[in-house]
């Protein structure tokens, strides 16, 4: 049975050191005609669509679907360049875990993220992680995290010809939003306190396991309940 591992991006795989804020600021200027103080907005765990709605509302505009969609397209256009404006990084343990899991025939690494597909691609490419993931479920216009989660589960089933056991579906994230996303599809959730939430907050949200950060690769294999040494090549 293949174990499906869904990965969140921001705060789980990497941090942009808030470089994405520069792209959001451009979107606010172009679409809303004004400035938004993004430092004052709590956006951790929100989907890009929810961030767009919040930004437009904060700018004093009516957050219509059309305006939110326009906001995200501007954000996506500016993001690849703005990622160079801050010194972000891949978070500890991520590359080692992905190297260990990506060579296995019994693991499918997929993304499950509130980023749009274009936003996710820009971040993964910038930090050299794009080759680890076959596909994923991303934020589409109008989405909430539950919709993304169910689309991710449908994708996993499609890739495995329908044979997905919920006991073998893991969601890894860093916010209570990620935990609820996993619970919505009956997955086990590993919550890492590598973002803005403490382990106690993540445990309270219903996480199956909480960790201060991703463990060493060998421990990650054990945590996922995988057999040791079941690799089948390179990524």
Structural features, described:
With 235 residues, this protein is of the alpha/beta class. It has 2 domains: 3-15 and 89-223, HAD superfamily/HAD-like (Rossmann fold, 3-Layer(aba) Sandwich), CATH 3.40.50.1000; 20-85. It contains 9 helices and 8 strands. The strands form 2 sheets. It has a 6-stranded parallel sheet, sandwiched between helices. The chain has a two-stranded antiparallel ribbon with strand order 2-3. Helix 8 (199-204) links the parallel strand 7 and strand 8 (209-211). It is globular. The relative contact order is 0.19.
For the record, the CATH architecture of the largest domain stands as 3-Layer(aba) Sandwich
In quaternary terms, these chains amount to single chain
CATH homology-level superfamily of the largest domain: HAD superfamily/HAD-like
The domain tally reads 2
What layout of secondary structure does this protein have?
Elements lengths: L2 E5 L6 E2 L4 H13 L15 H11 L6 H18 L6 E2 L3 H9 L4 E6 L4 H10 L9 E2 L7 H15 L9 E5 L2 H9 L3 E5 L6 H6 L4 E3 L5 H7 L12
Parallel strand pairs: 1-4, 1-6, 4-5, 6-7, 7-8
Antiparallel strand pairs: 2-3
Could you give a quick summary of the protein structure above?
This protein has 235 residues and is an alpha/beta fold. 42% of the residues lie in helices and 13% in strands.
What structural keywords apply?
alpha/beta; Rossmann fold; six-stranded parallel β-sheet
């Amino acid at each position: 049975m293949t174990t499906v591992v869904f990965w969140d991006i921001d705060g789980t795989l990497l941090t942009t050191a808030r470089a994405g804020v520069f792209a959001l600021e451009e979107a606010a200027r172009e679409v809303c005609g004004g400035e938004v103080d993004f430092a004052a907005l709590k956006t951790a765990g929100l989907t890009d669509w929810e961030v767009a709605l919040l930004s437009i509302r904060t700018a004093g505009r009516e957050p219509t679907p059309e305006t939110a969609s326009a906001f995200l397209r501007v954000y996506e256009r500016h993001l690849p360049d703005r990622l160079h404006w801050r010194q972000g990084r891949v978070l500890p343990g991520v590359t080692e875990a992905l190297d260990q899991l990506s060579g296995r025939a019994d693991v499918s690494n997929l993304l499950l993220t509130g980023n749009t597909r274009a936003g996710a691609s820009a971040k993964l490419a910038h930090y050299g992680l794009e080759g680890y993931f076959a596909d994923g479920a991303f934020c589409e216009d109008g989405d909430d995290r539950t919709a993304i989660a169910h689309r991710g589960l449908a994708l996993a089933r499609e890739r495995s010809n329908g044979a997905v056991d919920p006991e073998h579906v893991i969601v890894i994230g860093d916010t209570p939003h990620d935990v609820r996303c996993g619970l919505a599809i009956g997955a086990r959730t590993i919550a890492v306190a590598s973002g803005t939430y403490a382990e106690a907050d993540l445990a309270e949200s219903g996480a199956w396991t909480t960790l201060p950060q991703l463990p060493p690769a060998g421990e990650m294999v054990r945590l996922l309940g995988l057999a040791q040494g079941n690799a089948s090549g390179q990524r």
